[in-house]
Amino acid sequence: MFRGAHWSCIALGLVSLPGGARAAEVPPNAADMLREAYPKERQTVVNVLKRLYPESTDAIDKLVREIDLQKKTRVEQLGLIGGLRGEVAIGGFYSTGNTKEWGVSGTGAIRREGKRWVNSVDLLADVKNEDGDKVTDRLAATYRLRRNFTASNWFAAGGLSYERDSFAGFSQRLGQFAGAGYQITNGVRVKWDVMAGLGLRQTRFIDAPSENQVGLYARTTFAWQVSDTLKFAEDLSVANGKGNDTYRSTSSLTTDIYGGFALRLSFIGEKETQPPPGREKLDTYSRASVVYVFQPH
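^ thats the sequence. predicted structure below, dont judge the formating
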């Protein structure tokens, strides 16, 4: 782990290299340093190397991609829970739309990313109590499976989802989707992909007839590592079919605090084109959360 004196010695060793060596090839031990660094530390090592070897920027990025590919290959060789990484977050939210209130929010995410197969689970719970009585109960869970194709930016994807939101007018919503996607960019700092396919939904409304839909499901995710400690992310999805359509956008800024802890500010907008009678079309959620990230070496 690059901490304290250990990291200082490595940085000093790099800085003390002769000027001619800095302009030449990346030192042989650069790969070892990048492999040993934890994911958050790796970006710092990359930045130092690029400053010392500005003519080798492409070579350094290529080396990072090769190391990531090796790690993903190793994950696929581990057991069922080997190579899991993820996060848990807890904080507060303020909502507008069908409810205007403050409450407590909790989320969790687990991801297992191999060279070919990527599995992910996302969980969400929003709760608010007034005078000891629960007045808001919003739950969501999503499982996604992705199959990457060798030497291609194309991938296949599918998943299952569950939602419960009494203030939006439904007690249960199940979803299933499958389709194809394309990785637009998968760089060291910027990652962006899009996917689209067939979507199915079964919604049990509280005060309206249940609804089953067949239509289009589309999603795009964008992540930008703005600096060593700041990350911007956008997740936009659309469920479109005969009847009610759903549009959902999540924008977030995450900044590292210490170790595996980070602070996240996010804004979520959810629109239902044909909600049940008496319900608002647009709900928004503003969140502030403390996040703990766990990941394998």
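Residues 57-76 form the longest helix (20 residues).
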